[in-house]
Design goal:
It is a single chain. The chain is α+β, with helices and mostly antiparallel strands. The protein folds into 3 domains: 106 residues, Arc Repressor Mutant, subunit A (Orthogonal Bundle), CATH 1.10.10.10; 122 residues, Rossmann fold (3-Layer(aba) Sandwich), CATH 3.40.50.10610; 133 residues, Tetratricopeptide repeat domain (Serine Threonine Protein Phosphatase 5, Tetratricopeptide repeat, Alpha Horseshoe), CATH 1.25.40.10. It is built from 21 helices and 14 strands. The longest helix has 17 residues.
Length: 506
């Protein structure tokens, strides 16, 4: 399957690149979903047993069957209707009771294709590709992923560089490296690639910096150290890359490193679960709580636990007032422990905005950008807050910057973009954005309904409003308006008008 693309309906799956396109646009699918879909479409019409599918998605790892059920359900939602049912709306993936699953659609095998190249920034640009786990223990994949994420974070804090965000870098996990093609798709000149092996209290890391334009290897190094030296190795690799690209050593203030390797491992595993299912997020909560008990001064664990509470997984029904208060306290704790961590700063800023502490929120956003001018999530979150403050043009600029730093973003980026487009009165663009598979069928439907209503497509708007209310039965426009951090009355009235036209409850 590596290197071959498979088309079915409006979709093109590229298992090697780890991507799924619908009508040429990327669909937000996790690497496990891609692996499952690749296994199914690779043998259309055949019944694949549950054990075989679980091995495809979780190789070498024992997981509960419920995880497979959740992933299949998510794939079905993303793919929508089609499959064997054609116009009758049949599913693409059929369940074979007590046995497994079968892919129903007709497939075509295609040659390789590339995404449209992105233009290079006006500063040295780099993407860190996921480090390959070369240990005999598949459980060490989390360690290799954590190393990759930390290097992205450390490089991102260098103002003279343009650094691609984690989500987009990990879109290439497990694929055969095509240096030039990846660099063109991400719009960068340089790629850092490497491997990691962890065993018996030691780590072996190989890293190399490649110029994708010339094909030259600018720098390469091998490290064989004790596990306790892992953070020193990360600092050294970062310094070498910055020196190679900018001709000088890094000057960013140091981040606070954890004292406990066990706590670090727990945090690495937990942050991979944050955007998954509610069950996974509850697992992340337990991991982060354990990490803090092992290392009470570990700022990053507090930061992720703050987001865990805010997202509402811990308390069903969304972020309740108590959960919001706990999240804010945890975010403040994270910033107090490590004032130089931009991630903690933007999360605190976002939570402060929802508490109407706008002056403090604006200051925290500014500090986050000063500490890390490449943190795409900062700009996406800031777009949301700026739009609700009536600074719509700024909001659009922020979210576009977020997309450039993160071309394969999390689904909430599209909700943020659609909201900004609605606020700008660009309803056609908002409908196009909010109908994308990455964000459709989520709470963004309320903005889709409002956009359709403003275009005079009232039947479509009311249909979307009804679908939104299926998953949000207690929604009222009044409660939403009272809880969102609006600072501009005209912007608030504009959203309320759209909701009312769409028939959403007062």
């Amino acid at each position: 399957m590596q290197g071959s693309r498979i088309a079915f309906g409006p979709f093109v799956l590229d298992p090697g690149a780890g991507t799924l396109l619908r009508n040429g646009d990327p669909v937000a699918v996790g690497h496990r979903g891609i692996s499952l879909l690749a296994a199914l479409v690779g043998r259309p019409g055949e019944i694949l047993g549950k054990a075989e599918l679980m091995e495809a998605a979780w190789p070498g790892t024992a997981v509960e069957e419920g995880n497979l059920t959740v992933q299949i359900a998510q794939l079905r939602k993303l793919l929508g209707s089609g499959g064997d049912g054609g116009e009758r709306g049949g599913e693409w993936i059929a369940t074979v009771p007590r046995v497994g699953y079968r892919f129903l659609g007709a497939v075509d095998r295609l040659g390789d294709a590339k995404r449209k190249p992105l233009p290079l920034p006006d500063k040295p640009s780099i993407a860190v590709l996921p480090f390959v786990n070369i240990s005999n223990d598949p459980e060490q994949q989390s360690f290799a992923d954590g190393l990759t994420e930390d290097l992205i974070t450390d490089l991102s804090r260098t103002s003279g560089l343009f650094v691609i965000a984690r989500n987009s870098a990990f879109a290439y996990k497990g694929k055969a490296t095509d240096v030039r093609g990846i660099a063109e798709e991400l719009g960068v000149r340089y790629l850092l690639e490497g491997s990691a092996r962890r065993a018996a209290g030691r780590v072996r890391i190989n890293a190399q910096l490649v110029d994708a334009v010339s094909g030259d290897h600018l720098w390469a190094e091998r490290y064989d150290r004790g596990l306790d030296d892992i953070f020193a190795v990360q600092d050294e690799v970062t310094a070498k890359i910055v020196e190679a690209l900018l001709g000088r050593l890094r000057v960013s203030p140091p981040r606070l490193r954890p004292k406990s390797i066990e706590a670090y491992d727990l945090c690495v595993r937990a942050r991979k679960l944050m955007d998954d299912t509610p069950q996974s997020a509850r697992e992340a909560h337990l991991m982060l709580t354990r990490a803090i008990s092992l290392d009470p001064d570990y700022a990053e664990a507090y930061r992720w636990l703050a987001m865990n509470h805010w997202m509402g997984w811990v308390h069903s029904g969304g972020p309740t007032k108590p959960a919001r208060g706990v999240a804010l306290d945890l975010a403040r704790k994270a910033v107090a422990l490590d004032p130089n961590d931009a991630g903690s700063r933007w999360i605190l800023a976002y939570l402060l905005a929802y508490e109407r502490s706008f002056t403090e929120a604006d200051a925290e956003f500014a500090k986050a950008i000063a500490l890390d001018p490449n943190e795409a999530d900062t700009f996406a979150a800031l777009s949301d807050i700026a739009v609700l403050a009536g600074r719509v043009d700024e909001g659009l600029e922020y979210v576009r910057k977020a997309f450039r730093l993160n071309p394969f973003p999390a689904s909430w980026y599209y909700l943020t973009l659609g909201q900004a487009q609605y606020a700008a009165g660009d309803y056609e663009a908002a409908v196009e954005t909010l109908r994308r598979d990455e964000t459709y069928r989520t709470s963004s439907r309320r903005f889709l309904a409002a956009s359709l209503a403003q275009l005079g497509r009232l039947d479509d708007a009311r249909a979307e409003a009804e679908l939104f209310l299926v998953g949000n039965p207690h929604f009222t426009t009044h409660h939403w308006a009272a809880t969102e951090p609006f600072r501009d009355a005209a912007t608030l009235d504009h959203f309320v008008e759209g909701f009312r036209k769409a028939g959403l409850p007062e």
